[in-house]
Fold:
Amino acid sequence: MRVGRCSRAVEVIVRKLVLQLDVMQKQWVPPLVFVIQGGVGMNLLASELSDAAAKERAMFNECRELLSSTAAIQVQESSLRTHLIQLRQDFYKMK
Structure:
């Protein structure tokens, strides 16, 4: 049962990563379209870029934490699978 929980946890983490990537894309596209259309002052552009960079850095840190959690869960899942294999082998030896 724990292996199933690990798999579900990995799925949740992957969904969170996908949502974060969607948010990042939505934050970058509108400012870029505005810049391409013109009419933007250099100060406004620098301010927007600074804000976007700060948000991106925060999301990057969150993604890094999520990936770290994913890796730890995968290690735990692998360990549980190995333990299950060993238990099955011991069970069959006792028969």
Summary: The CA atoms of residues 59 and 65 lie 10 Å apart. The chain is about 95% helix and 0% strand. The mean pLDDT is 77.
